[in-house]
Amino acid sequence: MKGLLLRLSGLDADAENAVRVIGFFDRLITGRAGLDVLVRSTAELAGCPVGVHAPGQGLSLRAEPGADVVTPGPAPAGAATRVLEGGVLVWVARAGAPVPLDDMLLERFAIATAILLEHSGVPRPELGDPALVELVLSEDVGTAERARALHLLGIAPATRLRVLAGTGVDALAGWSAPLGRVRAVLTTGEVPGPLPDGARAGIGPELPAIEVARSWAAARTALRFTSATEPVVWWDRLGGLAALDGKLGPADLAELADVRALDRLAAESHGEDTLAALGALCATGSARKAAAVLHRHHSTMPARLARAEAVLGFDVDSPAGRFRLHLALMLRRLRDNTDPAPLAGP
């Protein structure tokens, strides 16, 4: 601090700005800001890329003005750096000549990093895998906490991961944790399978591990579109249907005429079989193929489809009719698969 005060005394015209820089970092320290906030705020103050690199702790944070914190590798060539205890490196990468307050900014950035790193909420090594998985998937933690949890799990931030959100999938291999009534499973490469009998799973998109919370959210959406006849749904294949999640509540969905018609069909004798036949028709595009999927003789299909058309009020064996039917079936699943209600039937 003595050297810092000596430099301040020689700044003259910049002394007021220097005091502002000190106050800026002091407020972040006293407010116990997260490392994400520190790095992002410093980038805004500096007007150039800045970062913290702590490979021994699984942390590598970088921010540019106006952008969120991301997780690259070490400091870029030519960056001004300070090395802290434990091999932690802070850096400021300004293009062109440095400005008068860069040295002070870097020093205060280093001091703030050391203090906040010591008091940050990064997970401790004794946390078990389920707790770390939960932390990785949480939308409420910062990049620093997620990167540290991934490090403790042995996963690099850039590793491509998918998340499987399922019920009845406790025996599947992979990093996993029970989150409410759903189990989350992190997987690289192939999705583990086959699923146990009665299990259901929504499978999220493949993303870098540091962004895996988005895959978890997508997997939960996909899970809502599963059924007894379609127990596995990939978010990647939902297309525009995924956008419906959260747009309409169960009460709104229950008021849709086609959904009510499907409910009436389901309430009839052998109604669930009829809904299964309708789902197979949508999946295969023909009554004969649908019968084969259901292991039924094709002669049983015409009567079922005729009854369904009478209740629904439209032709289900035309392209337009199958589209309308498929949408109604998916909306019905979306209505019924609302946590914590039991997962829906066909």
UniProtKB/TrEMBL annotation:
<dbReference type="InterPro" id="IPR042070">
    <property type="entry name" value="PucR_C-HTH_sf"/>
</dbReference>
<dbReference type="Pfam" id="PF13556">
    <property type="entry name" value="HTH_30"/>
</dbReference>
<feature type="domain" description="PucR C-terminal helix-turn-helix">
    <location>
        <begin position="277"/>
        <end position="330"/>
    </location>
</feature>
<dbReference type="InterPro" id="IPR051448">
    <property type="entry name" value="CdaR-like_regulators"/>
</dbReference>
<dbReference type="InterPro" id="IPR025736">
    <property type="entry name" value="PucR_C-HTH_dom"/>
</dbReference>
<protein>
    <submittedName>
        <fullName>PucR family transcriptional regulator</fullName>
    </submittedName>
</protein>
